[in-house]
Write a structure and sequence with these properties.
The chain is of the alpha+beta class and 94 residues long. The chain has one domain. 64% of the residues lie in helices and 17% in strands. A two-stranded antiparallel sheet has the order 1-2. Strand 1 and strand 2 form a beta hairpin. The termini are far apart.
Length: 94
């Protein structure tokens, strides 16, 4: 039986995307988005004058580095899987 996909609107930086996720993943996706958007704000404060694509790239590098440094390989894999899932969903939207 296939899980019902839940359509949600997400915001990354200054863009809104409509994606479909498993309802059981909604809390994790929203938590990840909060971390990403908070980090974008941090980088905007630290490195003024860049464009949004630069900030998003910085956050992706930071996020991937955090996952690689994580002492818990299960958590690192979960983060990597979540990022891949989000990337696939964004690719479908674009």
């Amino acid at each position: 039986m296939t899980a019902e996909l839940l359509p949600i609107n997400i915001v990354i930086g200054d863009r809104t995307y409509r994606i479909k996720i498993n309802s059981k993943d909604e809390e994790q996706v929203r938590s990840t988005l909060k971390i990403i958007n908070d980090k974008i704000v941090d980088f905007k404060t630290q490195f003024g004058g860049k464009d949004m694509q630069d900030y998003i790239a910085m956050v992706l590098i930071w996020y991937a580095t955090q996952a690689a440094e994580d002492k818990n390989p299960v958590a690192a894999k979960m983060i990597g899987d979540a990022l891949l899932k989000m990337e696939e969903q964004l690719d479908r939207v674009l």
